[in-house]
């Protein structure tokens, strides 16, 4: 099985140095008070739901929807075309709340603000989240997924006390995006000491974590994050963990994170085996329970193991909770999307194009696996990442971007491109201050921005 290593390549003046650094709530006095309590609770829930649905409806209608079928056949959008965000095809929702269902259908066209707060330290990978960048992403995309390496900004012990200065950086980004009207997906990214596997080699700027506390740390991180954002808009969603890398079937003594990217001083990941299978199911349930202590109804995303690939869905056992969306990633065909990435050994050859019939088939099969799972489970999906490394030929990357976008939208699935303005596959060239046109057109974004709210 092919494995994808998570570490992106740095750009900018310190590229060589950075490449070498990389590794990666009751009181009851009798039946009447109980009846009254139940009635009051029902009214409160109805009011909350109505308020949330009003928000969802208003944010969705702020955008001009275009039928998925017509978007499939549409020519590249001219830059003057309206921004299109709503995804009209419907997803199965029989096992989730109206809020979760509405959120899944409102996420629409999105982007990852990757390689900034998920770097070991913000700026390490050439990208800092300055206000203009946040505004541009928020005004041109319906959803911004914000990857955050919380684990490296928290104490190494089981408590995982989050560094307040770092948390304020995250607050600023989250609040700016929300104020601009975007949906925000806040995740826990690159917790390499936990996710394990060959791609989890610890970055030299990451500290070691005792394997005995890696899981407790994740739960405690979420307890703090959730409490911190408990009063934020329901447009803020939480995603428990980016890409648990295992399947739960790896032998216990599999070698830990190996020196796969040429780092002269290879570090070891803390976990003995990549996170996956029942271990991931149990941990996800614990983390969700920590979130629910303060956010009883916030919509949470959970992804399958095996790098969030749809093939991991067969092992995913969701906690009993109605406010969930399941997130998947799509990097098929992998030899195309990850050609020449320097952090994967062996490096995949350059020059692979996209997308012939076989490649389309590969890509569609994975999405079909996901939609079949979703139909059976009644839980809607989100496509949290797809992208093709910048070393692949641009026409092929644009064709790939359009194809995946259309395949997702035809299934009613909202998506987020990896990534906005860093170097895996940017749609915005921050150095030149302009769109990467072929990708922008393929994604059907960047037309009329959402009006500023400030
Ligand atoms: C990782 C990035 C990587 C991208 C593509 C993401 O999940 O966080 O580091 O560049 O996948 O491989």
Write up this protein.
This protein has 454 residues and is an alpha/beta fold. The chain has two domains: 15-25 and 35-61; 98-443, Glycosidases (TIM Barrel, Alpha-Beta Barrel). The protein contains 13 helices and ten strands. Strands 1-2-3-4-5-6-7-8 form an eight-stranded parallel β-barrel, surrounded by four helices. Strand 4 (236-239), helix 9 and strand 5 form a beta-alpha-beta unit. The longest helix is centred in the N-terminal third of the chain and has 31 residues, at 31-61. Residues 1-45, 57-84 and 253-270 have low confidence and may be disordered. The structure holds beta-D-glucopyranose (BGC).
Low-confidence stretches: 1-45, 57-84, 253-270
What's the architecture of the largest domain in CATH terms?
Alpha-Beta Barrel
Radius of gyration, rounded? 21 Å
- How much β-strand is present in the residues? 5-15%
**CATH fold name of the largest domain, please?**
TIM Barrel
Instruction: Give a list of the ligands.
Output: beta-D-glucopyranose
- CATH class (first level) name of the largest domain: Alpha Beta
> From N to C, what is the helix and strand string?
HHHHEHEHEHHEHEEHHEHEEEH
Strand runs, count: 10
Strand order of the largest sheet: 1-2-3-4-5-6-7-8
